[in-house]
Design a protein that fits this description.
It contains 1 helix and no strands. With 40 residues, it is an all-alpha fold.
Length: 40
């Protein structure tokens, strides 16, 4: 791992973080939909 950020370092980190947040929210939304469908 290169500790010194390159030209794309911060941008790649930002994109990766957004993907993680998006995937997490998508998974939570899917789980909530399953729970609501099971409760009805």
């Amino acid at each position: 791992m290169n500790s010194k950020p390159g030209p794309l370092g911060p941008d790649l980190y930002f994109v990766a973080e957004n993907l993680v947040v998006w995937a997490r929210s998508e998974t939570i939304g899917y789980a909530v939909n399953l729970l609501q469908a099971g409760a009805e």
